[in-house]
What does this fold into?
Amino acid sequence: MEAVCPEHTIIASNTSTIPIGDIATAAKRPENVVGMHYFSPVPLMPLLEVIPHAGTDPKVVAAAVDVGIRQGKTVIVVKDVPGFYVNRCLGPFITESMAVVQQGADPLKINQAMVDFGYPVGGLTLADEVGLDVTNKVIGNLVGEGGGRLGVRMEGANLEVIEEMVAAGFLGKKSGKGWFDHTSGKRGVLNKEAQLLADKYREPSKDLSKLPAPEVFERCFLRFVGEAVHCLQDEVISAPRMGDIGAVFGVGFPPFIGGPFMWIDKMGAQTVVNKMERLRQENGEQFAPPQLLIDYAKAGKRFYN
It folds into this structure.
């Protein structure tokens, strides 16, 4: 593109998780490279994440924000880390969704519990809409240590199940089958072949089949909320308001709740810390509450005054 475009041309990437700085390393004019991450389905989802890397010209950032606003999007500027803000929070959420299914939870009931909580669609529905191939790549860019990747915060499930589903051609709605069978002509029909693959990775040491679905869903929800606080702690987002806007407009976080930070304020930081500590003792370090949340709990602070 640089070879055929004017020198002032801005090159913007819609990548879901690849750090923009990694893309800019191949550019002759890295100062003109920026991230503009839209959300699926783009005509309906109002959020745009603008992601400058360390060398992006501030004028380029301003231009990207201006374009987004003129497109009618709500724009937030976030730090250049794998997954940026919204997908960085979705990574642990997806992992925990796989974990509870592998521990015996009914995937359809968990999907419905998410809708009952106030989301427009359930997690399995969202994965099928976005595409399991895209989901698999998002996860791949978040796992591991170093380079801003999430390490232990992406643990808790055997994520090979998604790789196997992709290899089997179960890409979601676009291929006819994913978690759901979209060829049946009916909504909410689970793909039996996908269920067999999920059963292959069943964790025999735990059984969540008798727990109420809302209680099981809370585990997934807390993984999202915890990562949102990590993002504020690590300055991926500049303020709680940006985190709440990103969650509501990017993934349909229930707007009447207001976003993860408003939810924490409503529940009380200490209550949320207690929930995460209990899950940490039962399931592992992936549930460890962020230090910022612990500090707020000890001080009795709120994210909004």
Notes: The chain has three domains: 11-77, 86-200, 213-299. The two ends are 48 Å apart (CA to CA). The domain at 213-299 is CATH 1.10.1040.50 (N-(1-d-carboxylethyl)-l-norvaline Dehydrogenase; domain 2). The longest strand covers residues 33-38.
